[in-house]
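ok, trying the design again with the full structure, not the truncated one.
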């Protein structure tokens, strides 16, 4: 395969997944990691991507760029399903308690599998969410009692935000929150592009007895505009690829458990 062909395929992968890793590309194309790095360097010079530790992210992946929930729902679907299944192990068997679902496509994958998990293990759940995308499926689910937190709905994420939303969350104490993020890094922690979205996520992290972060490896090393939590605020990170390097070390220092789906 010629370099131009590899680079075109790399751009397609970035369009689909938002991130590529050097090792994955090396395995996929049957070339050395040095060859992949040269391809990524060429694409970065062309403005097609931005290099990060261990790989690259799409050039549009800046601190204030945020795809809509519809656009994100078609990305990394297999990884999200695997993460969701693993994350629900946090409930244990026969769970009878309260769960808060943050807005997002990975948290939506967890919510989708929740009823089957409860049925299989004999559990029930008081579920709370501020996501209009998650609410319809949860409302119709067996073994689930649903409460929806209101507020001004932000179109990009189809989630309630604002002072009233944050105030309501502050009056809750869910047993577990499944929270999503746009970026997770050793230096900056967890971040998202929008300040109102960040305020809601920060309130969720503070409110919950146990915080389970669900994030695919495409979020590793990314830093959006607004920080909403530190790594030491997270009890468990559930992801599809084990973190490496400085992020892995920072998670270990923070005492965050890492579960790989």
């Amino acid at each position: 395969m010629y370099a131009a062909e590899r680079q075109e395929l790399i751009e397609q992968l970035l369009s689909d997944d938002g991130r590529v890793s050097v090792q994955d590309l090396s395995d996929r194309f049957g070339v050395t990691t040095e060859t992949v790095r040269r391809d990524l360097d060429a694409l970065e010079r062309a403005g097609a991507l931005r290099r990060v530790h261990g790989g690259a992210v799409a050039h549009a992946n800046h601190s204030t760029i945020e795809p809509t929930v519809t656009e994100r729902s078609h990305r990394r679907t297999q990884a999200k399903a695997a993460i969701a299944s693993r994350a629900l192990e946090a409930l244990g068997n026969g769970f009878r308690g309260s769960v808060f679902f943050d807005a997002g496509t990975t948290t939506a994958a967890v919510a989708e599998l929740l009823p089957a998990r409860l049925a299989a293990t004999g559990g029930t759940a008081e579920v709370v969410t501020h996501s209009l995308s998650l609410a319809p499926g949860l409302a119709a689910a067996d073994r689930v009692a649903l409460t929806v937190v209101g507020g001004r709905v932000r179109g990009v994420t189809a989630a309630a935000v604002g002072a009233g939303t944050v105030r309501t969350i502050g009056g809750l104490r869910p047993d577990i929150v499944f929270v999503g993020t746009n970026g997770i890094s050793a230096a900056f922690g967890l971040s998202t592009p929008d300040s109102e979205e960040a305020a809601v996520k920060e309130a969720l992290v503070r409110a919950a007895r146990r915080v389970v972060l669900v994030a695919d490896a495409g979020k590793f090393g990314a830093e959006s505009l607004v920080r909403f939590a530190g790594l030491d605020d997270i009890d468990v990170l559930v992801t599809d690829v084990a973190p490496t390097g400085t992020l892995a070390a920072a998670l270990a220092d923070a005492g965050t458990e890492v579960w790989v789906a």
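Keeping the full-length input from now on. The chain has two domains: 3-58, 69-260.
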